Each structure stands twice: as C-alpha cells, then as structure tokens.
Amino acid sequence: MQSEDEAEDEDQEGDDASDNEDVDEFPEIDAVSDSEEESEEEDTDDLDEEDTLDENSDADSDLHIFPKFRKVVSDITGQTKVVYPEIEPDYDSDSSTEDDPNRVGKIPMHWYDDLPHLGYDINGKRVLRPAKGDELDRFLQTVEDPNSWTTAFDQNTQMDKPLSAEELDIIRRLQAGENPDAEYDPYEPTIEWFTGKGKEEVMPLSSAPEPKRRWLPSKWEKQKIMKIVRAIRQGRIVGSKPTAADKKQQFYAIWNEPPSNQAPPLPAPKPKLPTNSESYNPPEEYLPTEEERKLWESTDPEDRERDYLPHKYPALRLVPAYDRFIKQRFNRQLDLYLAPRIQRVKLNVDPNSLLPKLPSPNSLRPFPNYKSLQFMHTKARVRCLSISSDGAWVASGDESGVISLWEVNVGREVKRWSLGSKVGAIEWCPRLDVCFFVAGTEEQLHFFIPPNISPAMLTMTQSTLAPATLPPATQSSIKWISASGAAEDGPVLTIELPSASGLSRQLTWHRKGDYLASVSSSETQGSVWMHQISRRHSQAPFKKIKGAVQMVLFHPTKPHFFVATQRYVRLYNLAEQKLLKTLMPGIKWISSMDVHPSGDHIIVGGYDRKLCWFDLELSEKPYKVLRYHSRAIRSLHFHPTYPLFASSSDDGSIQIFHARVYSDLMTDPLIVPLKILRGHDVQEGLGVLQIKWVIKQPWLVSAGADGSVSLWCS
Amino acid sequence: MVTSSSSEAPSHPVIFTTQTPYVLPSQKFRIPLDWKRYQLLQLINNALDLPKPVPFDFLVHGEIIRTSLLEWRAEKGVGESRILASSSHDLTGRPTRISLSSEIPTASTVASLHLHTSPLSSISTDVSGSHLLPSSWDGLVGVWDTSIPDYHQVNLERDDDRKKRRKTAPTNIKRKAPIAVLKSHTARVSKALFAAGELAKGKAYSCGFDSTVRTWDVESGVCINTINVPERPMLDIAETPDGNVLLTASTDRTVSIFDLRISSLSSSTGVMMHPATPSCIATSENGKHQVVTGSYDGVARLWDLRSTKGAVTSFKVWDRMKVLAVDWVGDVVGIGGEGGMEVWRIAGES
C-alpha cells in the first residue's frame, strides 16, 4: 500500500499540494468529478480499482487500515503488550490536516443549490459545481463504469465518489452482521489477570472511609487549620479533659430506688365482646319483631339502645360485607382517643376543710350574748364609762357633763353628778381597799367617792385622796385642789391640767392604784401627764414625743408604758427611761389599744377598721390582723379574768372574741370570733364609743352615741 | 269554822270567812275588842238568820278564840302593829314598825342591823317572824332575831361617822348585831331565805353570783350543801310551800329548778327559759306547781313546774320597764318594778 501511494505521489506531482491527500486516496474520484480532467484520470482510476479489489480480496489479517502494531514482552511486568508505531506528525498522519477544496464547513449544502458554485476554497475562490449529467448520462456511466456500484454521492463535493476498500470492508461487515472493526478478535485468548499463582488480589477493595491522609487541603483550608494549630499551641484552645468517671465503668443498682408508687397506665378499654344477637345466625328470640324494627329505625342513632339490628342468615357464606366497618372502626378509635388513660386524682376539696379549725362558740361559753338592761342618758351621747373594781357599780359620763353612778345588775341610778363640761374619760381606782373614781373633763380631773360604802372603806378612801403628810410642793403647772366643804355632792379632789390642754381623752391607772396617767386631746407636747395620788404630784413623762398621743397604758406586771401615737405603739421602760420597742401595726390612725392581763399581748384598733393582735415576744409586726368591723373601731377591752376580748365600732356593733393565750411560748394564741352584739343605734356616724368588761362576770357594758349604756349578759 | 283576819282595840274591822256551806255576810264588821265567842256567835247567828243557832268556833290566825279579842291580842303581841324588815344600799337592814291602829298608818324604824360592808340585796324572815335573814353583796348572810335591844350592840367606828349618821338616823334606833353569820359565798349573795316545811326546820337557802345554791344550818351557821351550777349568776331564789323544789333566777335568762327530794343533787333538774333576764320569782301558797316570774322586759309570767317548756300565761305589766319583785298571796299577785307597784288577780287557777 505504501508503495502504491508513493507511486501515485510521483504521478501527481504537478497537482496542487493541497489536493495531495485527495489525490492520494481517491485519485479516480477527482478525475471523474472533474469533467476537464476526466480523460486523464481514466486509467489511474482503473489502477486504483484494481488495487482496491486486491485489497478486498486479501485476507483480513493483511488488510490493515490502522497502523500496524506489534506485540512485545514488557520489561516491567513481563507480560506481552501491543505496541503501536510512533505517530509521525506529518500531513499524512492526521486527517484534520486533509485539504477539502470546499471550505464552507458543515453547512446544509442545499443552501448552494441555486448557485453555480458549491462554496469557496481556502483562497476564497469559488468552487464550481461539477457538471451533472442527465439521467441518461448517469445510466450510461453506471453501465460503463464497472466501479459505479461502489461509489457514493459526496455532499461536500456534490458528486459521486468511489468508496475506499476500508469503507467497503466496513459495509460488508455490517451487512454480514459482524463487528465493523476488522481488528476485533472475538476469540482472543483470555488473559488471566487475577487468577493463578501470584496474581490473587488480597482484599483489593475496602469500604473503609477515605483516610484523612488522602485529603489534600486547599489553600484556605490550610490557613484555617494553621490557625487552629497555632491556637492549640498557644494554649488558647484546651481540649476537654477525660474525666475519671468516664473511664470507670458505672453500674446502677436498679433495685435500689423505691418502686414508683404511681399506678401503671391504664390499659385501653376493651371492646365489648359480641353477644348472641350479633351472631350471623342468632336464635329466633333475638330477632327483632316488626315493631321493634320500626322503632329502631325511627329513633335517632344516638338514642338507639344498640347500633345494629340482629339479622339471620341461613349460612355464613351468605353474610354480606360488613357495611358498618368504617363507622365501627372510627367509633373504636374515638373510644380509645377519648378514654382517659391516666387515673386523674380529682382535687376533691371540701371548702369547709379549708377554713381554720376553730372551736365552736358554744364550747367557749360563757360570753355575753344578749342585752340584759339599758341605762339611758337622756341628754347627750355617752363618751365613757367605767366599772368599779368589785364589779358592782358603773359610772358613765356623757357629753353634757353628767356622770351617773348606777348599779350593774339592776340599772338603777344611785347618784348623779353634773359637771360643767363634757366628760371625756372615767376610770375607777383599781385598788380594792378604796373606792373612788376619776372623771376627766376639759382641762380638769375630778375625783369622786360613791355613796353607801362601808365606813372603813370611806375612811381609807378619804385618807388616800387627802394624805396627811405631803412632800413639799414643787413648782408645777398642775394644781391639786381639795374640796373642803360640800364633799358629798361634788368632787373631793380636782386636778387642774395646764390650760389649752383640751378634753381629757383617756385616763388609765397603774395596777397599784397610785399612779394615774391622763391623755389630753391637744396636739401639743404636754398631752400626757402622770399623776401620783400619794404625793399629789404630776409630771409629764415625755419631754418630746413624735406624733399625737392617742392612748397610753401601763403594763400589768412590768414597769413598762405603752404609748400609742397616730401610727405606732411605743413601749417604754419607765424604770430605765428608755424605748424598748416600736410596734408597727400598719394602721393609719390608731384609735384604741388594750393590753392582755398577762402583759405579753396587746391589741390595737384603728379608725381604718383594723384590729391588730401583737405578741410582744414575737415581732413588731402584728401576729394577726382582724378586719371584721365595717366602720372605725372605737374601743377595745380585754376581760381581766375570762379569756375574752371585745371590740366596738362606729357601725353600732360590738364583737366578742375568745382569746386564749397559752403559757407555752410555742403555742400561738387562739382567737375565735364569738358573737356580734347589735343594739346600739348609730347617730351622726358614731356607734359604740366605749366598752368595758364587768370584772368578775363575763358581762360587757357598752356606752353608745345614742345615749344608752347597755349591759350584755351571758 | 270561821276565821277573822285581824282585830282592834275598841273596835276592829273583821271579815268572816268559812269553809262550811253556810253563806256568811261578806261585808266588813267593826267589832268591839272586848267581845268574846258568845258575842260573835250571836252576831253570826243573827246575820245568818237560821232557825236553829249553830255553835260556831272562831279562829284568828289559825287559833280558836277562848278569851276576848283584846286579851288574845295582848297575849300574842301582834295585831296592833306589824314589823316590816327592809334591806338597803346603806349597808343596813331595818325592822320598821308599821302601826295600823289609826286610819293613817305610821312607820317607825325600831332597829338597824349592822354587819355588812356592802349594800344589802334582800331580807327575809322565817314563818314565825322571829328571825331575819338579810343577804349582802359582800358575800355574807347574817341572822338576826327580831327582838328589839335596849342598847347599841354595835359601836360605830369613828366619831365623824357617828356625827354624820346622827343627822339622818334618830338616836332611838338601836344597832343590832347578828346572832350568826353565814359565811361561804365567794361573790355577792342575791337572796337568802328560810326553808319551808317541817322537815327543813332550821335550814336556810341562799344563792349568789358565784352560781351556787347553798343550804345552811342556821343554828350552827354552817353550809350543809352546795349546788354549783357553772356560769349562772343567780338573782333570786324561791321555794315551793311544801319545801320540795327550789327555784333560782339567773342572768343567763333561765329559771333553774332544783328538786330537793333527789338526794345528792348536783345540778338543776330543769330550766325555764326567758326572753329577758328574770329578776324575781314567787310561788303560790296553795297551788303546788304554779310559779310567777318577773323579768326585765316588764312581763310577768305564770309557769307550771310540771311543764317548763313555755309559760302558762304572761302579762305585760309595763313596757320597757323592769319587773323587780313579785309576790303571790292567795289569788293576787303583787308586782313591783320600775313602773311602780301593781296588784293583779289570778283567777281560774287550778
């Protein structure tokens, strides 16, 4: 073949160098297409035809259009390998360098159908359309040319070109159904790559993840890594320490914990088992009668006793499909969904059990519960009252200046004194061997001796009020004046408080009956005075006191003194002359106060309706705040012997409480509301102004703004 | 038999009553005191105008007249005047002679009883009128006889006191000392009275604010028995005429009944509830079971001891005024209180 090519090269040296290849391969086609060179190339065509025929007739092994290869034994592997000859990079070696006369490229050639030329060559000259003979010429040519059946129309050149021997060989192989590659050997010997001695692969494949060493970081990833590495080196990143607990195996004693006392979750409710009537063939007695059927059909589905009608089928195979399947499944799901799965412990609290357990008032008798009698002051409202220390007499004073002395049990007035100004406070002397009382009016305190006392007591009283030996009188703004003449009808002794001190709001005796403290209503500093009867001496215990003093009280056992100002209650030690405690009741305006006979508890009432119980041992804040009155509290009083106290208010009611104080410090005082006593009228917004307990009996005496003084008996 | 109620020196008004079927004249006769049974028989037989004179016997105060009325009166020492004992807030009790001899009764205090240091709450006498039993707020019950002493048995403590007392009391009032003091009450004694009935002779009962009813042996002055009723201060005590039942009024609006026939009585055997404080009790002389109580609401109530649930009847004496004392003699009930004194007749009692 090479020899033939060389021969042809020699023949066509005069042709264009560009057409060299075409000429080299298909010299005949050129000649045929070109009508001018037709004659010249006739013979060469024949020659080529022969060559090709020869080639076709050759054996397959001989005919090689691809470069020849040779098999050599590799030095490295020791195997045979196919070695192809080196490709020489000349024009012949690559088809891309083949010259096509028409350089229009791969365009649809029918664009040039109407044109005389086919396209353009590399120099821009037109490639003229080759002459196309008519049908007769074509027929003649096919008849004449014996190679015409091996030609094919070439679009690019718009003419028939004879097929090369390789192309014909490929066509033949395709026609024969063979592999078009002539080199392909279907019967090649198998090459044992992995079988045989020394060729076995020992676990050649692995599903292990890609090892990290194969990872090649990018530049940025490298920078990021270096940043972390530097941080670790400088100690900015510290890895978590492995704890000892992690290393040790941990065991849990599963029986150590007490079993849960919670009930296990309830099992789902079971569906009802089918009954006889649900059978496909129920006995006759289960079948509904006509009326029952009608009744069942006429009732609403919710009202039906059962959601099916028994039906009888002669055989199981005649039972139709279950028409209510979906409905029944849905209902079952609904049941499961709505069925409570946990036992909910209902908080069944009896509201009565939340109330504090207080003993019944009936078990706490006696306490006053009815109005036994009423004593009337006809002219004005009764501000104050006091009960004698033997519990037999009541002295009550009203705003018109009348003091009535009357007997507790009958309510008979024994004596009446008329003072000029209104009476603000009355207090009996607590001593049992003397019998007199003090009434406080505007800027004056009057001492009265009741009639009908035994001669011994009268003598004692008179000597007490007029002591024979007096210490030398000191300069004081308080004057003590003894009435000399008509002692029977007037006060036996009068103390004149400093002028402009106003109405005596409160009087209180020390338990020994020698000291008397008085509180005047003036807002000035000197509103509290302490009077000593035996020395006829008065002094102001406080030079300066914050706030307007509302009430004062002596401690029943200790030398302590309670002073209630508008907001606070202060406890002073009179012996050491210092402040012991300040109680903060949280009341806007304190109206009244009383101390328990034990001295450890006080109650404080306010105009803002609150009643505070203080345990002096406990705190400066109230132990209990009672707010039972609907109007301002006016008066409070502890019973001296019974465990009772009472509060009176501007709402016209008196409330009785049981107040038991235990000697055991750990037990809280028991306060039980017992009774509300109503019977006083509210006049001009004022109700019950003062209450006092009868000393030895559970009886209460109350003075009202309606001018009545009532005795409440048990 | 015929009884006359009382007599007089020259002539005395007399009313004749009888339990025989004879219908006696109901008017008051003035009879001369020197009359004897014979004159009285003549008077009655003339008045009755019977065909045959009936030999009546005459009783005065339960005694048959054997002498003239004047002699009878002198023998008994009563009749011309009565002695009334009173207790007072001025710490004394006073027997007062009330003379009914003239048309205008006159009263004069004959003695004063000095013991107590507190006002007296009540005074009572025994059946014969020979002993007085005042009770006081100081917890003491004194026993006095009714004889009028010739001299002061008690000295006054101080001169100035005597001076003062002289102004009010005349000097002829003799101060009397008690013959016994019953001392056991711890609080004021409201009432003390002598026991009625033959069996309980020489006994006395008292009640007080210490909620006790005490039985006393007056002779020895010793408390024999104490009935303690907790938390029931008592205001009054009364006894039925047969001496079987004691009644006490207390401030918790109850009248307690104590049946003395029950041995070892420790509490009340019944109560009569009142709407207000009962202040006084009176038992009837002839009916055994009727009781009148007066209370502070001005209502007097008639009770039957056999049924204590409610009052048999009640009569409002005054409105908003207290009844402080009741007494019941025969078919009349006297009621005293803040409204004054009223006498009611109880008719139709069984």
From TrEMBL, chain A:
Functional summary from the UniProt entry: Component of the NOP7 complex, which is required for maturation of the 25S and 5.8S ribosomal RNAs and formation of the 60S ribosome.
Predominant cellular place of this UniProt entry's protein: nucleus
Record bears the keyword Iron: no
Record-level GO BP terms: maturation of 5.8S rRNA from tricistronic rRNA transcript (SSU-rRNA, 5.8S rRNA, LSU-rRNA); maturation of LSU-rRNA from tricistronic rRNA transcript (SSU-rRNA, 5.8S rRNA, LSU-rRNA)
WD repeat coordinates: 375-416, 626-667
Bias kind Basic and acidic residues: ranges: 290-307
Subunit structure: Component of the NOP7 complex, composed of ERB1, NOP7 and YTM1. Within the NOP7 complex ERB1 appears to interact directly with NOP7 and YTM1. The NOP7 complex also associates with the 66S pre-ribosome.
Family designation: Belongs to the WD repeat BOP1/ERB1 family.
Cross-referenced InterPro entries: BOP1/Erb1, BOP1_N_dom, WD40/YVTN_repeat-like_dom_sf, WD40_repeat_dom_sf, WD40_rpt
Protein localization: Nucleus, Nucleolus; Nucleus, Nucleoplasm
Chain spans, region Disordered: 1-61, 84-105, 256-307
Stretches with biased composition (Acidic residues): 1-60, 87-99
Domain BOP1 N-terminal: 112-368
Keyword tags: Nucleus, Repeat, Ribosome biogenesis, rRNA processing, WD repeat
Protein name per Swiss-Prot or TrEMBL: Ribosome biogenesis protein ERB1
Positions with biased composition (Pro residues): 261-272
A cellular-component GO term for this protein: PeBoW complex
Entry GO MF terms: ribonucleoprotein complex binding
Superkingdom of the organism of origin: Eukaryota
Gene3D superfamilies: YVTN repeat-like/Quinoprotein amine dehydrogenase (2.130.10.10)
Entries under SUPFAM superfamilies matching the protein: WD40 repeat-like
Pfam families: BOP1NT, WD40
Automatic annotation (TrEMBL), chain B:
Stored Gene3D superfamilies: YVTN repeat-like/Quinoprotein amine dehydrogenase
One GO term describing the cellular component: nucleolus
SUPFAM superfamilies named in the record: WD40 repeat-like (SSF50978)
Keyword Repeat: yes
Top-level taxon of origin: Eukaryota
Predominant cellular place of this UniProt entry's protein: nucleus
Residues covered by the NLE domain: 14-71
UniProt KW Transmembrane helix keyword: no
WD repeat segments: 113-145, 227-268, 271-313
UniProt-annotated location(s): Nucleus, Nucleolus
Pfam families in the cross-refs: NLE, WD40
Keywords: Nucleus, Repeat, WD repeat
Protein name: NLE domain-containing protein
Native source species: Suillus luteus UH-Slu-Lm8-n1
